[in-house]
Write a structure and sequence with these properties.
Distance between the termini: 67 Å
CATH class of the largest domain: Alpha Beta
Shape: globular
Helix content: 25-40%
Largest sheet: 6 strands, antiparallel
Structural class: alpha+beta
CATH topology of the largest domain: Rossmann fold
Number of domains: 4
Number of strands: 33
Length: about 625
């Protein structure tokens, strides 16, 4: 039996960064370093390695391929100069591929494709390129061709663009985006050379207009040489400025052997030196250690410069998304949807309750999308999930890394609330029934769908200490986690319209405690509607089962937007409530004799008509004034 080899491992070996190949099955690859990754043969957490191509330093970030770990991918995308999207020559375009490509295009990250496993039985590289064009709405350009695909003799040959019909095909593809090149192609073809076409291809790749496609076999290295050449000559890279002020982004956090936090810092400018202080949104922090990713290894160094990635120790309160350097901020601009499932976690031994809470806190630091929440005494703990595989991995992590046995309740769908109108609230200092030494006025109004939440000050910011305004903003963010019906409130704008203190008696605590009451009043005035998550699905099944599938989808509340029958295979796309997806997946094999495949990804939130479902509220309830004040006492 052949062992599977990850593409990053092959790139490290072929560029001389490592002198021995590891394999996924043996669990000794450079990038899959977690014990669970070795056991399961999948990438769970993003990992970093580095190799050199001449004078070019390539920081390679290997991201998970399973949709349940999309949060890991989200944190990486904003650090990339360019990307290589790996697609199987057998399975072709999958749900994760669609999500990744949409995100890369939205972020303006240039990318090319590598069609892997062309030697596998059932490999169909030419069809996969057609799928890339039709299903991903991009313009692929084949750079190599597979010979004897689907056999042990499979190989990849680079296309010689000096030859026809390849020269004309590339010219036409490039001319579609370049009027000067189009004029020369039609009127003066002698002006066109392969060198000019390659220059134009690199420019259009950088602009996201075209996407080269290479094919090969990571396990044997077939076709990888051409991919490496493309990484060096076609993919764009930013020019680091090591003499500029320090700037970068933290995209991952993990714990060291002693439990200390280690921040993965992608440094885009400047030089970071050990024992120097770094500016972070939570305040300056001293760098106590630097481990640099260099030539497939992690090296302890005293400093590192722009264009490199390192693990930084000593930062007391790093958060994923933090900008490092002058003008620091925390980036909350996630480009993937939040998880749509939630589950209750409890320890198998009640005495482990505190240990479980601490362990889940550590996991939430590494993956903010886990969204750990609990009641006041931490007797009930909830985590958010993308899917059941992620639940299994969390359970195994708690067992292997923390020695904790846990029980997960059945997952439930996470709904949200949106304001339906504009509402306001105000509590004035020294005026009943306000028990706090603070005046807070707030207005809340809806924003467009998927716009997220925002906060603004519409008061004179000079009349109070900045910490008072921060306390209000932080309390607003916390209060919006549970609206009128107990669900998180999304897509709204909150403005602070009134503020007053009495010096020196007023404190930030007064503003932090008063804000939830004022915001609850504003939300009650505006009103909210509960919305459920809706998935976009792609279903493939034998055409002979189409009638039964349509009946199942109709019964499930799904809506089909497109249906194509080709070669006896029916391909349907549409939308379906997320809560129904697992039920459809369970019934599909029986209707299609095991031949049906359903892929789904979150698409949007839709209002629920009729009775509004509520969500158990954890902690104090500002919508019940007496209960809220009693909980503070």
């Amino acid at each position: 039996m052949q062992e599977r080899l990850a593409l990053p491992e092959r790139l490290l070996f072929d560029t001389g960064a490592i002198d021995k190949l590891g394999s996924v099955d043996s669990g000794n690859t450079q990038t899959d370093s977690l014990e669970l990754e070795r056991q399961r043969g999948i990438t769970i957490a993003a990992s970093v390695v580095s190799f050199n191509l001449g004078d070019l330093v390539v920081n390679l970030i290997d991201t998970p391929g399973h949709p349940d770990f999309i949060a890991e991918v989200e944190r990486v995308l904003q650090t990339l100069d360019a990307a290589v999207v790996v697609v199987s020559a057998v399975e072709g375009v999958q749900a994760q591929t669609r999500v990744l490509v949409r995100a890369l295009r939205r972020l303006g990250v240039p990318f090319l494709f590598f069609v892997n496993k062309i030697d596998r039985l059932g490999a169909r590289p030419a069809e996969v390129i057609d799928e890339i064009a039709s299903q991903l709405a991009v313009r692929p350009v084949a750079m190599s061709v597979a010979i004897d695909a689907g056999s042990r003799n499979a190989r990849a040959e680079a296309i010689d663009f000096e030859e026809e019909p390849y020269f004309s095909a590339l010219s036409e593809a490039l001319a579609a985006n370049d009027e000067t090149l189009l004029d020369d192609y039609v009127l003066a073809p002698e002006r066109l050379t392969v060198e000019r076409l390659r220059t134009a291809l690199a420019a259009q790749l950088a602009a996201g207009l075209l996407h080269p496609v290479y094919c090969g076999i990571a396990m044997t290295g077939v076709g990888v040489k051409d991919l490496i050449a493309a990484i060096e000559t076609l993919l764009p890279s930013k020019q680091p400025a090591s003499d500029a002020p320090v700037a970068g982004r933290i995209f991952k956090i993990e714990r060291g052997w002693g439990g200390e936090k280690l921040a993965f810092l992608n440094l885009t400018s400047g030089t970071v030196v050990a024992r120097d202080y770094l500016a972070l949104p939570a305040g300056a922090a001293k760098v106590t250690s630097i481990q640099l990713f260099d030539q497939g290894r992690l090296q302890k160094v005293d400093q590192f410069t722009a264009g490199r990635i390192a693990k930084i120790g000593g930062l007391a309160q790093p958060r994923i998304g933090d900008q490092v350097g002058t003008g620091t901020s925390t980036s909350g601009g996630f480009h993937f949807a939040p998880p749509t499932l939630e589950t209750l976690v409890r320890p198998t031994r009640p005495s482990d309750n505190t240990a479980l809470w601490l362990a889940l806190q550590q996991l939430a630091e590494q993956d903010p999308f886990i969204n750990l929440r609990t009641n006041d005494d931490a007797s009930e703990m909830f985590v958010s999930l993308y899917g059941e595989v992620q639940k299994e991995v969390i359970e195994a992590t708690l067992s292997v890394d923390f020695g904790l046995g846990v029980i997960f309740e059945e997952s439930t769908v996470i709904r949200v609330e949106r304001p339906v109108g504009t509402g306001s609230g105000i509590e004035i200092i020294f005026r009943e029934p306000n028990p706090f030494l603070a005046t807070v006025g707030l207005r809340i109004e809806p924003r467009p769908a998927a716009a997220g939440n925002s906060f603004a000050l519409e008061v004179d910011v000079g009349q109070m200490p900045a910490s008072f305004y921060r306390a209000v903003e932080e309390a607003v963010t916390e209060t919006l986690k549970a609206g009128l019906f107990g669900w998180q409130v999304i897509d709204c704008h909150v403005a602070m319209t009134a503020a007053r203190q009495t010096s020196p008696a007023s404190t930030a605590v007064d503003f932090r405690r008063l804000t939830p009451l004022v915001l609850a009043a504003a939300l009650s005035s505006a009103g909210t509607v509960v919305c459920e998550p809706i998935d976009r699905f792609h279903l493939e099944a034998p055409a002979s089962t189409l009638t039964a599938i349509h009946a199942l989808l109709a019964k499930s509340g799904a809506s089909t937007t497109d249906a194509v029958i080709d070669g006896g295979i029916a391909r349907l796309t549409g939308i379906v409530p997320s809560v129904i997806v697992q039920s459809v997946q369970r019934q599909l094999p029986g209707l299609t004799s095991g031949a049906g495949v359903l892929e789904s990804t979150f698409d949007h939130y839709a209002p629920i008509s009729g009775a509004q479902p509520s969500h158990p509220r954890l902690g104090s309830n500002p919508f019940d004034r007496a209960d809220y004040l009693r909980s503070l006492r």
